[in-house]
Amino acid sequence: MLKSLRPNRFGAVTAGAVTSVLGALGVVVGLGGIFGPVRSVTIGWLLPLAGVSLRVDRLGGFFLLVTGAVAIPVGVYLIGYARREHLGGTTLTVVPVFVATMLLVPSAGSVTSFLLAWESMAIASLALVFTEHRRVAARRAGVFYAVMTQLGFVAILAGLLIASASVGGMDGFDALAGVPDGTRAIVFALTVAGFGSKAGLVPLHAWLPRAHPEAPSPVSALMSAAMVNLGIYGIVRFDLQLLGPGPRWWGLTLLIVGGGTAVYGVLQASVQSDLKRLLAFSTTENMGLITLALGAATLFADAGAGSAATVAVAAAMLHLMAHAGFKCLGFLGAGAVLAATGLRDLDRLGGLARRMPATTALFGIAALGAAGLPLGAGFVSEWLLFQSLIHAGTQGDSVIALAAPLAVGTVALTAGLGVAAMVKAFGIGFLARARSDNAADAREAAPTMLMGMALAAIACVVLAIAPLVAGPVLRIVVGELPAAGTTEFSGLGWTVRLPGIDGTIAPAWFAAAVALAVVVVAAIASRRAGRGPAREVLPLWACGADQPTARMQYTATSFAEPLQRVFDNVLRPDTDIEITHLAESRYLVEKVAYRARIADTIEDRLYRPVVRVVRRAALVVARAHTGNVHLYLAYGALGVLIVLVVSR
Asked: Considering Cα of 172, then 233, then 324, then 104, what sign does the dihedral take?
């Protein structure tokens, strides 16, 4: 038995260590790219004809920094998770490869190298989604992800080839700045569709809530906290930096798509009972907020509101960092729960605060950050976004006068529903009584798993209380975008001050005030408890009934039911009530069964009809495949003949 465990232990330690080392390398190289000179290297023999070109500048360095920072805690966590979940050697090998390919994407210095790195990243992530391919849900998720990621790649490939052809080469990114105006619109549409698919923007998000829950939890953390960011990188690099700042309709497009994505993602998250699926939809929500901020910046820059545009870009970049922290921690916490209980269903969890106190506290930090509340990692960035939208002014522009208030309402609605979703995830999943034997028998996560989660939690706390740590990085990176080039962002200190906008906030002082209040209240309570009479423990009064049971608590489904009713027209739930009568009399009820299923409305209305058409077409085409070699040769000859006729 011990001999059989040794290879798995060695493989887990090796994979985790290599992953963390790659992450640390990404952080170092990223910081060097941000604060140092631009460095580039070309390896001609590695790829025929074009070679491989690597180039680390300030923008690429920022995404290297974020990606590497996510990989470090995931690598530490992977050691304990792999041993507890008995991950195979193939999976442990592919995880570091996946991290390496993600680091190559923002390091690419030419279109050819970028496409190679992007497709390598897609293949590695697809292999990891298929880790548990014996389960039907995992196979379906993998196939769906494969189709979506390849369609996105086709859109990116077409857009970048058109852009490269218009400037006469694919050597470097800088040449793409010379794309003609007429071609820019086509390139923008194609690349936003392709990169938006990877970022999980609606309506191209359908793969995300399928693939993230079915992948192993460390992989889910990498995909949700790092890989989707590279979709934002593509939009920022190609559309907003090289081709940008762009006309106002570019900004309106990003604003509308981002706002719709944020609202739809948080609506779906608020009604999910699967913990990992809830976190996946939360990722869609946050990618929508980042895209909305980038769209607002483009729109404000076109109208001459330079200060508001700069603050909006800073909000997008800071929120990207914060999301990487709290979503990494959230998925790692969900993985710890899954490893301890075998459950993702919030309706069957509960009671974990006593059985897994460290995991509960760490997941609470992630939930606070995702909720966007004060002392959470996402609060400062969302506050910056609010300030940019509120103080943009009309600029004598009717479009901004209409778009900015609507965007404020969208962000406010998203923030409110985000609080509800995270209260459900944390309160229903971790507090109160256990709703199943698996939850009641849970045990705390392994030390390395807790260590990995603690590293991510530290990053969340730092960004929440002392965002000044990110100040020097943001000041440099924000200035890389043309939309924010007119105003320098240098207001992140102990007190956050906005350039050209009246508004300040001091998260560190607020945290100190809260901590002081807690200490004072605890001191007063302990002092009064010492003076009062001795405590007497009495049974809880429950209206004459027995002691409360788990069946008397809110479940995740019942908690979300009021929200579901409000947004019935959007969510379109499928509900069914089944009443079983006693055999003796149809007037006496034995039991009532209530079932509710909330599917992805966009997937049902948009994707399923397309899939049906493609399936029917495939059946028609399949009839032509008879297995006759001579017939296949005839097909080829006919194809060549058609090409010759068209060419003539």
From this structure: negative
